Amino acid sequence: MSINYSERIPNNVDLANDRTLQRALEHWQPRFLDWWHEMGPHDFESADVYLRTAVGVDAQGWASYGAVKMPDYRWGIFLADALADRTIGFGDYYGQPVWQQVPGELRSQFRRIIVTQGDTEPASVEQQHLLGHTCPSLYDLRNLFQVNVEEGRHLWAMVYLLHAYFGRDGREEAEELLARHSGDVDKPRILSTFNEPVEDWLSFFMFTYFTDRDGKYQLKSLAESAFDPLSRTCRFMLTEEAHHMFVGETGVGRVVKRALEVMKELGTDDPAAVRRQGAIDLPTIQRYLNFWFTSSLDLFGSEVSSNAASSFANGIKGRPDEGQYEDHICREATFDLSTPKGTDTVSLRNAMNEVMRESYIKDCEIGVKRWNMQIQRAGYDLRLSLPHHRFRRGIGAWANLPVDPQGRLIDRGEYDRLLSGWLPSEADKAFVRSLMQQAKAPGKIAGWIAPPDRGINNLPVDYEYVRLA
Ligand code: BYC
After folding, report:
1. Atom of ligand 1 nearest to the CA of 120
2. Cβ contact 125:39 at 8 Å
3. Which of 117, 238, 420, 453 is most buried, judged by most C-beta within 10 A?
């Protein structure tokens, strides 16, 4: 079904024929706009931004480009088309027709997961609240805002499910999604990484590379869900998510490129010399990578999780690309897990968080390889790398243990001494922040980052992507 833009809330779920739901969502809409006004991009409400808006859910429709003022962006409810005769692809209900309603006994489990997913979306917008003031170019500013409006829409996607399928509880949860705030002492966001400040653009690029990629994996696993409206919602969200990770991968790549240019000009890879030229040295980039990668690893939960087992058994959450596996029931299968006490053989269902984390890590490696190719081509032996998945964990079997980036358990004293060298120090952060000056003329690019290879939607790089008021 095509998207109806004549309604207050654009949608392809035939909202007009469900007056109760429509009223409930129209009641929530002004609260969302208040939240956007207060917690969304700070100070750019009257700027014209070259944004893409979804006007359909097929290959042509999901990206219609044009200048929009962000408060006028049409946040709506768009589900990917239903797949005919879709059956449940995993767990105890394998092979049965998918559900159009949530089974009563699974309500609270489904609600918890939808709320957790929903909570991350506004959280990320809050984390990026002030970044516009220090954008390295109008191209980057526009990308930031594109990511922000789409995270706002992803919040709408989850709120729709809560309102449409969870009654009064769902409406209350939808209110709470606007009441918790990233980093708030009393009412923080649910998941750890979403309370970390994102105060500079290197962090933003690391966040969109690593943390949005957790989003990709979680959405892929929810796209497998037996609850069809959740699956369809997530399938459509994934098309938007790809751009966010592109922003991260190319963003980090451009920071690396600029460092390499400066290293070549100076004939040295000395970090202090690179910094004096106003670029970010590779060891600093590595420390930022260490921080955001390890933080994002925690988002998959514990290695052994009865929640994960029950989500899988009950058809709530499958594995990303469930079709690639042979066994979709996994009742007998086991998984060998490395724990601080040695290898532990556990039921595969209980290890689903770890299975997902492993696929995620493989996906993270692709960008790192590309960044390293740039370094290699420039003739340097240095390499960026993902630290070991046991390093700096806050959740699971390896939480709070003194593990080095190679994954070895080391002496606690030595760990405490070395940790500050593995993560961005206060001095690193102050240095990176010192580079963050807004570049606001079309085509102008800050000195710490290389220009992008191409502009957006075939427009030139120096196009005025944001017309500041
Ligand atoms: N921080 O059995 P456990 C995205 C909680 S990103 C704090 O180990 P389980 C996006 C857990 O909730 C994708 N708490 O794991 C990216 C549980 O609490 P309750 C977001 C944590 O239950 C960028 C307890 O610890 N979507 O979309 O299997 C920009 C025991 O948990 C953490 C989802 O995550 C943590 N790191 O949970 C914008 C999908 N880890 O329930 C957007 C929905 C675990 O006992 N969520 N806990 O109070 C889920 O599928 C699951 O809840 C988890 C794993 C993946 C979080």
Report:
1. 42
2. yes
3. 117
Ligand 1 neighbourhood includes 116 CB (under 6 angstroms)? yes
Q: Assess contact for 72 and 65: CB atoms under 8 A.
A: no
Q: Determine contact, residues 103/69, Cβ cutoff 8 Å.
A: no
Q: Return the DSSP state at 409.
A: B
Q: Give the pairing type, strands 342-347 and 64-69.
A: unpaired
Q: CA 288, CA 198: separation in Å to the nearest integer?
A: 11
Contact by Cβ (8 Å): 410, 388: no
Report yes or no: 253 and 371 within 8 Å, Cβ to Cβ.
yes
Using alpha carbons, list the distances in angstroms from residue 246 to 22, 239, 284, 444. 35, 12, 21, 21
pLDDT in tens, 269-305: 999 999 999 999 999 999 999 999 999 999 999 999 9
Rounded Cα distance, 246 and 252, in Å:
10
Query: What pLDDT, on the 0 to 100 scale, is given for residue 1?
Result: 62
The one-letter amino acid code at 444 reads: K
d(Cα 123, Cα 146) in Å, to the nearest integer?
16
Q: 3, 54 in Cβ contact below 8 A? A: yes
Query: What is the edge-to-edge ordering of all strands in the sheet holding 64-69?
Result: 64-69, 48-53, 466-467
Q: Which of 356, 338, 350, 339 shows the shortest CA–CA distance to 300?
A: 356
Q: Provide the token pair at 136.
A: 């390295």
DSSP annotation of 91 reads S
Within its chain, how far is the Cα of 458 from the centroid? 25
52 phi, psi to nearest 5 deg: -100, 140
Nearest to 86 by CA among 292, 202, 232, 213: 232
CB distance 187 to 180 below 8 Å: yes
Q: Could you give the count of Cα atoms lying within 13 Å of 423 in the half-sphere of its Cβ?
A: 15
Backbone phi and psi for residue 11, each to the nearest 5 degrees, phi listed first: -165, 160
The region that residue 467 occupies, defined by phi over 0 for left and psi between -120 and 50 for alpha, beta otherwise, is beta
- The answer to whether 105 and 181 are in contact (CB under 8 A) is no
Atom of ligand 1 nearest to the CA of 207: 23
* Phi, psi torsion values for 68, nearest 5 degrees: -140, 140
In this structure, the residue with its CA closest to atom 22 of ligand 1 is: 307
Q: What radius of gyration do the chain's Cα atoms show?
A: 23
DSSP H or E run through 49: strand 48-53
Would you say the CB of residue 182 lies under 6 angstroms from ligand 1?
A: no
Residue 247 Cβ contacting ligand 1 at under 6 Å: no
175, two tokens: 């209110």
Look at residues 440, 428, 139 and name the one whose alpha carbon lies nearest to residue 280.
Answer: 428
pTM given for the model: 0.98
pLDDT band at 4 (very low <50, low <70, confident <90, very high): confident
